[in-house]
């Protein structure tokens, strides 16, 4: 078989796989509702009557959000592990993880999205409060 025939066969196989994948999207309900995906696609100037493409964008968006959340979680764990090393004397009773803007910003930076927050932004409910109001 010549190289050209192999390329055409590979292209045909890719087309069949893509067609099968798009057909499977009709039976799949993504986390992001079709209406929400259509709204933001229309807002950006994209209009397509094919619900499969809307769902494809919703699935890609869902994957992106999951990847960013996973990376932010890893940054959060690393940050809290560093805090625990610094405070070896204190017992840490609360082991809940809290997503901080710092963690989210680092995760998004890995995907080329730069997020900067205002200086008045607070990562904790007590940030910015003076000592007197915290003691009350």
Report on this structure:
- 5% of the residues are buried.
- It is built from five helices and no strands.
- It has one domain (3-122).
- The protein starts with a helix and ends with a helix.
- The chain has helices at 3-24, 34-43, 51-86, 101-109, 131-135.
- 60% of the residues lie in helices and 0% in strands.
- The protein is mainly alpha-helical.
- Its main location: nucleus.
- TAFs are components of the transcription factor IID (TFIID) complex that is essential for mediating regulation of RNA polymerase transcription.
- This is Transcription initiation factor TFIID subunit 10.
- InterPro entries: TAF10.
- One of its GO terms (molecular function) is RNA polymerase II general transcription initiation factor activity.
Largest sheet: none
Number of helices: 5
Low-confidence stretches: none
Helix/strand-derived category reads: mainly alpha
Order of helices and strands: HHHHH
Mean pLDDT: 81
- The number of domains: 1
Q: Please tell me what the overall shape is.
A: elongated
Helix content: 55-70%
- For the secondary structure, the number of strands is 0
Rg on CA atoms, Å = 23 Å
Indicate the proportion of strand residues: under 5%
Protein name: Transcription initiation factor TFIID subunit 10
Family: Belongs to the TAF10 family.
Function: TAFs are components of the transcription factor IID (TFIID) complex that is essential for mediating regulation of RNA polymerase transcription.
Pfam family, one: TAF10
């Amino acid at each position: 078989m010549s190289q050209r025939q192999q390329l055409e066969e590979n292209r045909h196989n890719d087309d069949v796989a893509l067609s099968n994948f798009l057909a499977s999207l009709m039976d799949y309900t993504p986390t992001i509702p079709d209406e929400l995906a259509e709204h933001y696609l229309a807002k950006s100037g994209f209009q397509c009557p094919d619900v499969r493409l809307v769902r494809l964008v919703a699935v890609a968006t869902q994957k992106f959000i999951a990847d960013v959340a996973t990376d932010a979680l890893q940054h959060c764990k690393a940050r809290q592990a560093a805090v625990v090393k610094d405070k070896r004397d204190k017992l840490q009773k609360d082991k809940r993880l809290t997503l901080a803007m710092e963690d989210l910003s680092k995760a998004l930076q890995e995907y080329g999205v730069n997020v900067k927050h205002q200086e008045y932004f607070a990562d904790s409910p007590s940030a910015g409060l003076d000592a007197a109001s915290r003691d009350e």
